[in-house]
Structures
1.
Amino acid sequence: MQICCKRKDRNRYDTTSHFFPNNSMPSNARIYVGIDAGGSKTELVAAKMQEEELLNLFGPCGNPARVGFKDSADVITDLIVQAVERLQGESIASVCAGVAGAGRPKDQHLLHEGIRSRLKDRIPTSARDVPVRVTHDSLIALEAAFEGESGIMVISGTGTVSLARTNSGEFLRAGGWGYLIGDEGSGYALGADGLRAVAHAFDGGPDTALCDLLAASGDVTSKEDLFEVVYKKKTPLQRFARIVIQGACDGDPVAERIVRKHIALLTEQVCWLADRCSAIRPRITLLGGLANNPFYRKRLSSALLERLSGWECMQPLNRPVIGAWRMANDMTQGEGLAGSEQGTSA
Amino acid sequence: MQICCKRKDRNRYDTTSHFFPNNSMPSNARIYVGIDAGGSKTELVAAKMQEEELLNLFGPCGNPARVGFKDSADVITDLIVQAVERLQGESIASVCAGVAGAGRPKDQHLLHEGIRSRLKDRIPTSARDVPVRVTHDSLIALEAAFEGESGIMVISGTGTVSLARTNSGEFLRAGGWGYLIGDEGSGYALGADGLRAVAHAFDGGPDTALCDLLAASGDVTSKEDLFEVVYKKKTPLQRFARIVIQGACDGDPVAERIVRKHIALLTEQVCWLADRCSAIRPRITLLGGLANNPFYRKRLSSALLERLSGWECMQPLNRPVIGAWRMANDMTQGEGLAGSEQGTSA
C-alpha cells in the first residue's frame, strides 16, 4: 500500500480555491477523512478544514461487486486504521467512503456494518466513536465536480449513468441500468455493437473496417474466433470500444454509425434528466474512461450542447475523493447521515 | 422415460408422404435411429425405411450447454441402449443425434466420443459397431423441414439463427451469435429491449404500456425491482418477450417500435443469406418458440415476403427428429460421416 503525505499533485484538478467549503477557520480544527473505493484502487485523503492534505493513502480495488463485501470492507478498514495510526494525537471527526458497486441502500448498509465491526477490533477505544458513512462513488464524484452545488454529471466508462444535483440539493439519476438492459453510450455498448457489426459482416452484411481492426488487434479472423472471444474467453466487451472509435476516426461508416447511435442515446438520457427538473444549474461535466477519449468527448459534448442550448460543458472542479472528504465534513455539520443511504436513486 | 411405440400422432407434421426419402423397398431392411436432443426433452425415433415408426422414446434435456457433456452423453446413450433392447433381433444400421448447444465441431467430437465409450460398456458386442453421428439440432431441423432439399429456415426462439441449404447441398448460416452480440429478433432480444424501455420510462423517457404490463405480470413496480429481476434474480429475459408482443398487439407505440425493429433486423439477416447464394429454392420456414406466436409470425413472414419477392413461407414438412432419422439413413448410403462435424457453419 503506497503512502503519500501532503502530495497535492495527486489532486488532478485545481483545488486550491475549491478544496474547502469555506475559508473560515473552524473552532474545532479536527480531521476529516474521505475515501474513494473504486474498481482499480481505493484512495483515502485526510485533511483539516483549513489545511492541505495531511495524508493520502492508496489501497487495492474496493468495489464489492468485484471483490465481495468482505474484501471491500477489509480494504476500506485497512486504510482507516492506517490513517488513525498516522494521525495519532489528532482527532478524526468523521469518515465518508464513496464505493463503486454499492449503489443500493442495503449494500451500503452491509458494508457500513462490516467496516464498523472491523474498526471495533482494530482501533483504540478513544477513536471508535468516529462516524462512518458509506455512499455510492458516483455521489462523491458529483459532490466533488460541482463542490456540492447544482449541475449534471455524465459518467461514461464501462457503463454509463447520468446524475443531476438540483438547485435545492435533490439528486436525480438516469441510466446506470447495467450491461443487460442499459449502458447506452458506454465502452461496453460500443464494444458489443462493434463485434456485432463484425458478426454481420461475416453473415454477408455491410463490410466494415472493424473486421481488419479486430484482426490486427488480436486473434479474431474467423467466426469461430469471434465466438471464442465473447463466450469462451469472456473478454470484457468494453475492450473493443477503442477499435470502434478508431474505425469512426478513420471514417468507417459502420463504426461511425455505432458512435453516432450511442452518443444520441446518451444525449437523450441526459435530456430526460434535464427535463425532469428545470431547477438545475445549466452545466455538465463528463467523467469516465470513455469520456476521456478526445474523439468521443468532443462528439458527446457537441451533441449535448446542441440539444441543451445555454448549457456549458466543464471539467470537474475536484477529483472524486475530495467529494468524499467534503461529505465527511458535512456529517459533522448535521447535514449528513452516519450510516448508509440510497446513494444514486432519484 | 416415456415410451411410445408406433405413435404416429407425435409427428406434428404430415409425414405420410414425406417420412421416407424414397418409396423403393431397400434390399437390407435395417433400422435407422434419429435423435433430437433439445433444451426441454430428448426424442428418439427408430424406423425401417419402408415402415412407420417402430419406436418413439423420450428422455430429459440433452443440451450439453445446459446439463454438461457428461449428462448429455448419458441421456443420449440411455435412449440408444433402450432402443437396442427393444429392437432385439433387429439390426440397427446407424444412429444420428441432432444436439442443441453442440454447434462446434470440437463439442460434437467430445459428445461423440462420450456416447461411443458408454455404448461400449452397455450394449451387446454384436450391436457395438453401429455408427453414431453427432450434429447440431438446427441441421436436423433443416433436413426435416425441406426433406434434404433447398430452402431457408429461420429459427426464432430464445435466440435466432437462419440457415440455408442451397440447391447443391451447401449449408449457409447467418445469425446465431448469442445474446451478447447477436440474437436480433429473438425472445431474448425482445425481452431485453422491453425492460430497457421500462428503464427509460423510469428515467423520464417515453411512457409505455410495458410498465403496467410488467407490473401486472410480476413484481416490477420500482427501479429497485427492475435491477433485482435482471441482475439478482437473473430472470431469463426472454420471459418478457410476451409482454412486448402484448404491448404491440395493444397498440403501444414503444412496444410496436421494438417489434418492428427486431423483425427488420431478422429480415435483414435472412436477406444477407439469400443474397450470398442465388441457388436457393425460394422458400422459407419459421421455427422456434417466438415464431409460433401468431402475431410475431405474421409480422415476420410479411416482412420476409415483402423483401424477398417470389418466395413462399411454408410449414416444415417434418418434425426435427425425422431429420435426424433421415441423416442416419444417409450415413449408410455413403453420404454421411460417422463421427462429428461442423454442423452449422457456412
Note: The domain at 3-147+319-331 of chain B is CATH 3.30.420.40 (Nucleotidyltransferase; domain 5).
2.
Amino acid sequence: VPFTQQVENLSHESLIRRASCLVTDSANTYLSQTTLALVDALTQYAKALHTLISLQKRYIASIGKLSPVEEDSIWQVIIGQRVEVSDRLEECKRFESNWMNAINICELSAEAAYNSGAEHACTATKTNLQVAQSKVEEIRKISKEAEKKLAETKAEEIQRMAEYASSIDIHDLEDVPEAYLRED
Amino acid sequence: VPFTQQVENLSHESLIRRASCLVTDSANTYLSQTTLALVDALTQYAKALHTLISLQKRYIASIGKLSPVEEDSIWQVIIGQRVEVSDRLEECKRFESNWMNAINICELSAEAAYNSGAEHACTATKTNLQVAQSKVEEIRKISKEAEKKLAETKAEEIQRMAEYASSIDIHDLEDVPEAYLRED
C-alpha cells in the first residue's frame, strides 16, 4: 500500500512531527561533528602532554650533566612543547563549547520530538547523547591522567633540582676555598 | 572558481560550522511549522469565541420571549459551542508547547551557529524568531480581545437575567392576587 503512504495526512501535527525529526537529525549530525572534533582535540592534547612529560623526564635525567648551551637548547624544546600543550588545551576548550551547545540542542530536540509524537526520533537522539557523552568521558579520563603524570614529573623535577642545588652548594663550598687557595 | 569551492577545507571547524547550519535550517523549519499551527489554532479559537458570543447575544435578546422547548434548544447549541471553544483552547495549548520548544531550539541553535562561526545563519535565525514571535503576539491579541468580549457578554447576560427575574417577580406578585381573587 505505498500509495496510501504517499497521501499521508498533512495535518499540523504530522507536519510538526516531520519537522521535529529534521531537527533531531541535524542535531545528531551536529553532535557527531562536535564529538569527533572534541575527541580529536583531547587526543592531541593528551599526546602533547605525553611528549612534554618525556621531554621533562629526559631533562631530569640529565640534570647536572649538561653544558649551559645543551641545557639552553633542551629548555627551548620544552618551552616550545609547553606552548603546544597550551594551544591544544585552548582547542579543547573551543570544541568543548561547541560540544556543549550540541548536547543542549540534542536534549531539547529529543524533548521536542517526544512532544511532537516522534518517539523514535526522541529515543534515537537520547542513545546518541549517551554514546557521545561516554566517548568524551573516556578520552577526558586519558587526558586527566596525562595531566596528573605531568604534575608528578614536575614535582620530581623540583625535587631533583633541589637535590642538585644542594649537591652544587656542597661542591661549591668545597670548591670555593680551593679557588681562594689558588688565588692566594 | 567553482573548483576551489569544492575543495574547501574539511577541518573540524568547517565541518562543525556546516553542521550548525543544518541545525539552524531545521530549527527554522520547525519554527515555521509550529508557528503556522499555533497561529491557525489561535485563529480557530478566536472564531469559536466569536460564534459563542453571537449565540449568547441572541439568547440575551430573546430572554423571556422563548418557550421552554425553544430555550432548551438554544442552550444545547450554546453548550455545544462552549465545548468547541474549550477544544480549540486545548489545541492552542498543545501547539503552544510545540512552539515554545521551537523557540528554545532556535535560540540555542542561533547561539551555536554564532559560536561555530556561522554568523549569517545566526542572524537569519534571530530574524525568523522575531517574525514568529510578532505573528503569534498579533493573533494572541485578537483572541484575548475575543475572550474579553465573551466575559462582557456573560456579564450582560447575568444582568439581563436579573432584570428579567425581578420583572417576573413583580408580574407574579401582580398576578397572584388576581388568581386568588379569581379562585375566590
Note: Chain B has one domain: 10-149.
